[in-house]
Each structure stands twice: as C-alpha cells, then as structure tokens.
C-alpha cells in the first residue's frame, strides 16, 4: 500500500464541467464505503493509467484535499467504448481491520514440457478470487508451468498461497492445460 493518489474535490457536476475536466487530464471519480460519506472527486488521468497498468487491484493511499490519507481500492472503471479513454472511476474505502474479497492475477512462467513436445498451451483463466486481510493481498502470483506434460492441467487447487489467504474460486476449476495434437490420418481413396 505504498502508492499515493491525490483525490481532489470536484468543482462542478454539470456535463460540460466534467467534459472540460477530462480534456484537462482530470477524471471524475467517486469514493464510497460502508459508514462513510460518498465524495465526488477528480483524479489525474496520468496517475490512474499508471496504477491501472501496474496493478489495478492494489490498495492505494488516497490523499484528500484536506491532507487526510485513506486506504482505497479501485472498484470500477468506466471507459469510452471505442477509444478506451477513461471516463469515470469508482473508489471504495478499505477497512484495514476486516478481510476483503478481491482477485489475484496469475502469471505463468516457463515453457511447459508438453509444449516442447508438440502440445498446445491453453489458458482458461488468468485470475482467482481470494479473501484475506487487505495487508496480505498479493499483487499477483507467479506459477511455473515448465513441469506440465502433454495432457496435463493445472487446477486452482494446485496453487499455493501463503497462510491467511482463502481461495474462493472453485478448486476444481482448470486454469491451464496442455492439449495433445492428434495427427490426422489421410484416407487413401
């Protein structure tokens, strides 16, 4: 939780004001949470793009205009359909004393033995849902797949997280598999 993001109060709520703010590189945002007042904000588009690129599920330190620092997480990102330009961000207050549900990105490393012998690598999912204390939430998890042979698969239950992290995704879900290629037999006429 080391990344700071400046949360500035929104000056206006009209559509023209919001569009003008976007042109100046400020994205409209809202901050909410259980037992907290909802705040209409603006954040730097450049800072948000950097955060979303590096770790979109990171717990951030939101610094408000009155210098109060609160732990927050990106809850939702609204983008323009055609250009992908950021339109709106929803932030959620994080209670650092209660467990939270989130997703963890799985990064696969190594080249599977089965792929070297002619198999095809098929990735079914890149993230799993977990429940843990906010301070224990990993940004990602690297999994070495070099030992997977042709016909083998990696299940969610094969992942080993540190103590305190409960995996909510079905443990029997296939994450990655090495498919075998069957040579087609030509029929002679």
Features of the shown structure:
elongated; 2 domains; 189 residues; RNA Polymerase Alpha Subunit, Chain A, domain 2; Ribosomal Protein L25, Chain P; 6-stranded mixed beta barrel; single chain; 12% helix
Query: How can the largest sheet be summarized?
Result: 6 strands, mixed, barrel
Assembly type of the chains comes to single chain
Figure out the total of helices: 3
Label the CATH architecture of the largest domain. Answer: Beta Barrel
The CATH topology of the largest domain comes to Ribosomal Protein L25, Chain P
CATH class of the largest domain: Mainly Beta
Strand content: 35-45%
Average the pLDDT over all residues and give the rounded result: 87
Total DSSP E strands: 13
Low-confidence stretches: none
Strand numbers in spatial order across the main sheet: 1-3-2-6-5-4
What is the share of helical residues?
10-25%
Give the termini distance in whole angstroms. 68 Å
Task: List the domain count as a whole number.
Answer: 2
| Series of secondary-structure elements, N-terminal to C-terminal | EHEEHEEEEHEEEEEE
What class do helices, strands and sheet pairing give? Answer: mainly beta
User: CATH superfamily membership of the largest domain, which one?
Assistant: Ribosomal Protein L25, Chain P
Radius of gyration: 22 Å
Q: What would you call the shape?
A: elongated
